[in-house]
Amino acid sequence: MAKAAVLYDFNQPLKIEDVDVNPPREGEILVKVAASGVCHSDLSVMQAKLPFPPPVVLGHEGAGVVEEVGKGVDDLKPGDHVILAWVANCGNCAYCNAGTTHLCDVGMQAAMTGEEFTFKKNGTDIMRMAGVASFAERTVVRATSAIKIPDDVPLDRACLVGCGVTTGVGAVMNTAKVRPGETVAVFGCGGVGLNVVQGAILCGASRVIAVDLSPQKLELAKTFGATDIINAADAGDVPEAIRALTGGLGVDYAFEVIGSPAVINQCFLSVKRGGKAVVVGVVGMGTEVSVQGFSLALEEKSLIGSLYGSANIRRDMPGLVDLYMQKRLKIDELVSRRIKLEDVNEAFEAMEKGEVARSVIVFD
Ligand SMILES: [Zn+2]
Ligand SMILES: [Zn+2]
């Protein structure tokens, strides 16, 4: 039995209730969740923009302590502290073998369909979102999606490595591979966008231009290292403003962290010849994106996507945790508020109003 936040109908508040938790099957572990970030993708599920049919336990940015391990799990044991990743890596499919573990067949199946049944209420199955379902006191996940971390890492900070930190920093380090001295623009400075900003600083970008509509988020972007800010509400032509800041050229990389076709086009217009527009924001299913075709071959611009920071979770998550513990990566500053599970619906309202970088649910 565990208290959980369950989505029963699209566009309705989550219901906080006790649910039954099945024991871990072969290759799975039972985790006592310590904390979970509230991410924009949870809201997207509620709004039917991602393919998880209710009833489903949401939450995909969690960390906790292993309570029980299923058959065949020999690299984790009860008491281990873990971050929960929403793309497992099986280590055995064509994608994992090719070194692109963030596209793992097994992991993507769970991340995109939430097919497994972990929870039950009155005999009815309830899905777990993205193989994680961290809006629950206890959850069951694949052992291949749990990353062990040292016991002294605070779990209410570590949870954010499960999605926002890895997605944002990884987009810069792994997908774009920004090099020292290159220039970067970041469109959208929420929980993930701020991590793109600090990823660019970690990679040595000479100019990191933050773009948003919210003055508060732009101020926050400065504390994460943005060298310049542009408020798109009053900047007029944003790509022009970016060129003005970069000697008339445009940036090497523009990251889109919103999921808006119009903003993706702005990113594409903001990069210089040979530059890359990197889409991190999730564009809703069935929505098309268009850019000026001329600029592809004749200006050698690229439009590329980035999933989960192109991260190898076994390599990158412990590395990001180390950077945090050495105070070289900001996570404390991402946590706008700590809340109880019962307050999760208000956290979504605050998110929609643009009031918070991250709300973090802390379990007793
Ligand atoms: Zn997320
Ligand atoms: Zn795989």
Structural commentary:
The protein is an alpha/beta fold and 364 residues long. It folds into two domains: 2-162 and 331-362, Quinone Oxidoreductase, Chain A, domain 1 (Alpha-Beta Complex), CATH 3.90.180.10; 168-306, NAD(P)-binding Rossmann-like Domain (Rossmann fold, 3-Layer(aba) Sandwich). The protein is 28% helix and 28% strand. It is built from twelve helices and 18 strands. The protein has helices spanning 40-46, 94-97, 105-113, 155-158, 164-176, 191-202, 215-223, 238-245, 261-270, 294-297, 313-325, 344-352, and strands spanning 2-7, 15-21, 28-38, 56-57, 62-69, 81-84, 117-121, 124-128, 138-142, 146-149, 183-187, 207-212, 228-231, 251-256, 271-279, 302-305, 335-339, 358-362. The strands form three sheets. Strands 3, 5, 6, 9, 10, 17 and 18 form a seven-stranded mixed β-sheet that branches. It has a six-stranded parallel β-sheet with strand order 13-12-11-14-15-16, sandwiched between helices. Strand 12 (207-212), helix 7 and strand 13 form a beta-alpha-beta unit. The radius of gyration is 20 Å and the shape is globular. It starts with a strand and ends with a strand. The mean pLDDT is 95. It binds zinc ion (2 copies). One zinc ion (ZN) binds next to loops. Residues 89-90, 92-93, 95-96, 104-106 line the site of one zinc ion.
The level-1 CATH class of the largest domain: Alpha Beta
Structural class: alpha/beta
Describe the global form: globular
Superfamily (CATH H level) name of the largest domain = Medium-chain alcohol dehydrogenases, catalytic domain
Strand content: 25-35%
How many domains make up the 3D coordinates?
A: 2
Give unreliable regions as ranges.
Answer: none
